[in-house]
């Protein structure tokens, strides 16, 4: 190796050492991923709740379920008790929903803490849900309370984190009992509920009952450990019969409970992670400096013609002929989010107030215009079907937004 390469390698190693030193001195960033996993101690994990429930019950009275509900209930014909599901979204398919409903009708309890649960169960119970947005209120921090006078608190419980709130916009009061309600915080000094909406209900089904709570955040570490919020979670779970077995679902979770990849161990530890990165960088450098003069000539291959535009027009025409406006809108939204990621280098996985402010700043659009566009996109994604006018309005707003770039 020549002196030139030795000096270059020394400079690169010094730069890597400096980066590692600076990285090791920084604090770990808070992971706001909504995993709802029992093993996660991050804010949106359920480690605390799982620990409290498992310790308050005997080993035979608390059971872990890692199988899909359809397989578990099919294999365990004698199982009974309360089946507890907690996740951001739990979209049961039709077969799974019917299996759960049949199991409940035999005298069991189904408890679901999720923002969405699929149409089959909702249609069967004659319920309808929606996501709540208040364009006049920039605050999206929810206040929650229970309806029962014995559990109701004059000062509602408070989630000090912006989130999307779900509620029941259609409730059959003849068969459904409203147990809880929510509202969005108006300002920091006023913690009272204005125009509360139902987000927790109970309904009898056969010989059993079904409880649905549309704000899964109240079961997470962040909510339970804040001040005395645990009392709200405790009161919500008090509707579960303590004498029955509790079945904790580990299948419908955003976060994995079992990591099959050995890289997880390396990437979870900061020092092992950087050692792994250095190994990869060293390998790349070796290939660049050692393999450059040894590689064979690469033949020129004529690239295939780009048929992307033709293909896109064909697919769009098929959707338009079928009047599938929702699919076209989703394609437009995904294309717009990809534009945001590639143009402004923004993460579109977490669309919140901070994201809207950054997008407005980088795109030279006003904050109000940007907020209206993002809220309109979020609203359309939650809808089951769209009209042609709504699709055209979406395209109009996106094009107007891009013109400012």
Automatic annotation (TrEMBL):
Give TM regions.
271-289
Task: Report the superkingdom from the record.
Answer: Bacteria
Classification via Pfam families? DUF4350 (PF14258)
Keyword list (alphabetical) reads: Membrane, Transmembrane, Transmembrane helix
Q: Which organism is it from?
A: Dokdonia genika
**What name does UniProt use for this protein?**
DUF4350 domain-containing protein
Q: Which residues form the DUF4350 domain?
A: 40-237
